[in-house]
Specification:
Blueprint lengths: L2 H56 L5 H16 L7 H17 L4 H77 L14 H40 L4 E5 L4 E4 L1 H7 L11 H5 L3 H7 L8 E5 L2 E14 L2 E11 L1 H36 L8 H32 L7 E3 L1 H19 L2 E6 L6 E3 L1 H17 L6 E9 L2 E8 L31 H10 L4 E7 L3 E9 L1
Parallel strand pairs: 7-9
Antiparallel strand pairs: 1-2, 1-5, 3-4, 4-5, 6-8, 9-10, 10-12, 11-12
Adenosine-5'-diphosphate binds next to helix 12 and helix 13.
């Protein structure tokens, strides 16, 4: 049954009970008033008339006329106040007796007869009063009984209504409120269990449907997310490079088996932990988290041997916000090994070539000497060409040897306090002839009172020679070169400036790479090693080398060394 119907029925019932009580009350009160009315009025009046007639009868001997009048008046009133059964007959008999009383005087026995009639009327009315009184009190008792019964039933029903109804309405509402709270806490398994067929029953069905839908949605989403997560984890784990994922607050999101292997920390000790805290007990992780140092390969003991890894830190950006980062290590051990093999090979070859080339040079020198034998002009020219090629070959093998020494780390630096001027003098000495040959003028500007540098003069001069040699080679004939040496804070800056063709900006970043030569650059001779070796020589002395060039107008190569 619906709540609305139940409420209507309950209230209707209460209304009916109230109506019944009101009707009964009115009925009994009416009845009681009728009973009491008839007692007070009719019977009482009959008693008064009878009493008056009785006293008139007694006064008959004293004042006959007024007594008869009194009797007559009261008898007439009695005749008009017949209410009881048998009262009429006695009153008629009394009237007949009264006719006799008027005619002549009555004997005592006749008076007694009249008195008997009057007593009879009084008796009838008294009995009636007693009866009616009894009836009235019975009515009152009935009224009390029925009304008490109805009141008791009504009180019982109302009491049970008062006790049960608030709960009947409030309990489901409370259960519903609790369930909604559970749903808001994502407990979608929550259900309502109202068995009734009323509005609450319908509410429970609708609520349970909603919770079921939410549950299904949540489960399907969760399952999908878990599946996607598993897939990504598998991908990350199958990768051969160590990978560590961090969120924007540096908490570890994921770490693959490779990374666990090289770090030597268990997955449990890393996942969800604050990475800098974990790094307190792990030197390698501390190095990996350091964002500034990403250039040099890291030497890490992995797979029972020393391995080399390059580090890359990728920022994860979503909607222009950084939401985390991924540290990826690339195992470059194989390349390192190949590089070492190559360096070894170059070192061996260049070393092995040096001796035969030197002996060729020696042979050529002897051939040129007239004391050994006279050679004709054509042969002289040939010897000259071979000599030039041999010098180039010797230069290349020398550079290759230098390179292999730099790469293998066997380069020996001999630090000595050196005046910057000495470096320039040393270089100019060996380049003078080449400059003069091309008609290139060298302008030298050296700041006064420069401090001494603690450097390897040979290596530094080698760089200076290489820069001047390039400047001459890439300048037009009869042009000039400017050499400038000055102090800048804690460094001495060496500069070699030419006014040649300059360097195309797209190659600027590459010219310090090994074996790099600008395509179609003139002159065609050269190995592309000079600047690479220069870079290594300067950097191994804690210096920096760089170039500023305006394409078509010239280049300025600079290097700075700490004082
Ligand atoms: P190379 O033996 O070829 O000169 P380097 O390492 O000394 O080798 O130079 C690398 C390349 O840089 C050269 O091939 C050349 O193209 C460019 N380069 C070097 N110096 C200059 C310069 N002063 N002006 C223009 N280009 C230059």
């Amino acid at each position: 049954m619906r709540i609305k119907t139940k409420l209507s029925l309950g209230l209707g019932f209460l209304f009916s009970v109230l109506l019944l009580l009101a009707v009964l009350g009115i009925f009994y009160i009416h009845r009681l008033s009728n009973d009491s009315k008839s007692i007070t009025k009719d019977n009482y009046e009959s008693l008064v008339y009878s009493k008056n007639m009785m006293s008139a009868l007694d006064e008959l001997d004293i004042d006959q006329k007024s007594s008869l009048l009194k009797f007559e008046t009261n008898l007439k009133a009695q005749e008009n106040n017949i209410t009881e059964e048998g009262e009429e007959e006695i009153t008629i008999e009394l009237r007949n007796e009264f006719k006799n009383l008027k005619l002549d005087s009555l004997t005592n026995s006749e008076k007694n007869l009249v008195r008997q009639k009057l007593y009879a009327i009084t008796e009838i009315n008294l009995q009636s009063i007693v009866r009616k009184n009894k009836e009235a009190s019975e009515s009152a008792s009935d009224a009390v009984l029925y009304m008490s019964l109805i009141a008791a039933v009504t009180i019982l029903i109302t009491f049970s209504f008062i006790v049960n109804f608030p709960g009947y309405i409030a309990n489901p509402i409370k259960e519903l409120t609790d369930s909604i709270k559970e749903i808001s806490r994502k407990n979608y398994s929550q259900r309502l269990h109202f068995k009734s067929n009323d509005e609450f029953g319908e509410l429970a069905i609708a609520f349970n449907k909603m919770a079921k839908k939410l549950d299904e949605y949540d489960n399907s989403n969760l399952a999908q997310i878990i599946f996607q997560k598993k897939r990504i984890e598998t991908i990350i784990n199958t990768m051969h490079d160590p990978i560590i994922g961090l969120d924007e607050n540096n908490f570890v999101l994921f770490v693959n088996q490779e990374a666990i292997g090289i770090l030597g920390i268990s997955e449990v000790d890393m996942l969800g932990k604050y990475a800098p805290d974990v790094a307190l007990h792990n030197d390698l992780l501390r190095v990996l988290l350091n964002e500034t140092d990403v250039s040099k390969p890291l030497k890490i003991f992995s797979e029972n041997k020393e391995s080399y890894f390059t580090k890359e830190i990728l920022q994860i950006i979503s909607d222009s916000n950084i939401i985390g980062k991924v540290i990826v290590l690339k195992n470059v051990t194989k390349f390192k090994e190949l590089d070492a093999a190559k360096t070894n090979f170059i070192a061996t070859i260049s070393h092995e070539l040096k001796t035969p080339i030197a002996s060729i040079k020696m042979g050529l020198k002897l051939l040129k000497d007239d004391r050994v034998g006279v050679v004709n002009e054509e042969q002289k020219k040939l010897i000259e060409n071979i000599s030039e090629d041999t010098s180039r070959l010797l230069k290349i093998t020398g550079e290759l040897l230098d390179l292999s020494q730099v790469e293998s780390g066997t380069i020996q630096l001999h630090y000595n306090p050196t005046a910057p001027q000495e470096v320039v003098d040393y270089a100019i000495q060996s380049m003078k002839f080449q400059a003069e040959q091309k008609g290139v003028n060298i302008d030298i500007k050296i700041q006064e009172e420069l401090p001494y540098l603690n450097i390897d003069i040979e290596k530094t001069a080698w760089v200076m020679v290489n820069l001047i040699s390039n400047a001459i080679r890439y300048s037009a004939e009869n042009s000039k070169i400017e050499i400038d040496i000055k102090k800048d804070k804690e460094h001495i800056i060496f500069s070699v400036k030419d006014f040649g063709k300059g360097i195309d900006p797209k190659y600027i970043d590459k010219i310090f790479d090994k074996f790099f030569r600008i395509p179609n650059g003139v002159p065609s001779s050269g190995t592309g090693l000079g600047l690479a070796i220069s870079k290594d020589f300067i950097e191994s002395q804690q210096g920096i080398i760089w170039v500023e060039s305006e394409f078509g107008k010239g280049s300025e190569f600079k290097f700075s060394l700490p004082i």
